[in-house]
Design a protein that fits this description.
This protein is mainly α. The relative contact order is 0.14. The longest helix has 34 residues, at 109-142. The protein starts with a helix and ends with a helix. It has helices at residues 2-17, 20-51, 63-86, 91-96, 98-104, 109-142, 151-175, 179-196, 200-203, 209-212, 214-218, 228-251. The mean pLDDT is 87. The chain contains 12 helices and no strands. Helix 1 (2-17) packs across helix 6, helix 2 (20-51) runs parallel beside helix 6 (109-142) and helix 3 (63-86) packs parallel to helix 7. It has one domain (2-251). It is globular and about 65 Å long.
């Protein structure tokens, strides 16, 4: 336990030192501020351009448009940035040999894997929470009369998908020695989930549903209970990926 906490502190310091934490927070801060602004201003900008050509006006923007921007930016850009930043979670230290000294001094390989996953989860949690708070504040200010349903649950689902993605990333990092290989394997996992999502009977069990059904939850077109199976499967797969990462890393030559 002491080794885990000590290595976790070291990981957090490294994320601060290498600006990974700062980059994540900056990216999601920009999203949090611009999500409602884009929703508010984009129709007006498009309308001014369209009206020059004599075409009819666009409908008034709503809070749904702001949250559409939130989930679109978080899933399409935010998660990609996260994967790129964390792709060297093991390979960078393995290539430099910095782990060898720590492991020979008694640090367990299990503590290394668990602390790295914990640190990535903490960074992801802070980033998505910051983005949510900023988006929520500006959305309430710009669209005070609009109400949304199941907002916290939909954001929780996106957060949980991020945890699943991080576990797949850690598993990929344990399998390969390069950043590109890590990103490739993680991409294959995501693409596999997207392909399986085409099958309607698989959709409710698919982890990627947690990142695609968010607006349906907010607009009440999707029942909360329909994602319970996907939540359980995501938690189970995350546990499996992290456990396999520990097993693989235990046998991995340094």
């Amino acid at each position: 336990m002491n080794g885990y906490l000590a290595f976790l502190k070291k990981e957090i310091f490294e994320y601060v030192k290498t600006y990974k934490l700062l980059i994540m927070l900056m990216v999601f801060t920009v999203f949090g501020i611009t999500n409602p602004l884009i929703a508010k201003l984009l129709p007006e900008i498009l309308e001014s351009l369209i009206n020059d050509k004599g075409i009819i006006s666009l409908p008034e923007p709503t809070a749904y448009d702001a949250w559409t921007q939130f989930f679109k930016n978080a899933t399409q850009i935010g998660l990609i940035v996260m994967v790129i930043l964390f792709s060297g979670v093991l390979s960078s230290e393995l290539s430099k040999g910095t782990l060898i000294n720590l492991l020979t001094k008694g640090l367990s390989r299990t503590a290394v894997i668990l602390s790295k996953y914990t640190c990535m989860v903490l960074v992801w949690t802070k980033s998505i929470a910051l983005c949510f708070v900023l988006t929520y504040g500006y959305t309430v200010y710009l669209f005070p009369k609009d109400e949304t349903s199941n907002l916290l649950f939909s954001v929780f689902c996106l957060w949980l998908f991020g945890l699943f993605l991080l576990s797949a990333l850690l598993f990929s990092a344990a399998l390969t020695k390069s950043n590109y290989g890590c990103m490739l394997i993680t991409g294959i996992v995501v693409v596999a989930c997207m392909i399986m999502n085409i099958i309607s009977s698989v959709h409710k069990y698919n982890p990627i549903s947690l990142a695609t059904d968010n607006m349906g939850l907010i607009m009440n077109s999707i029942e909360v209970s329909s994602l319970y199976s996907a939540i359980m499967i995501s938690c189970l797969l995350s546990l499996i990926f992290v456990s396999l990462s520990v097993v693989i890393f235990q046998k991995k030559p340094l």
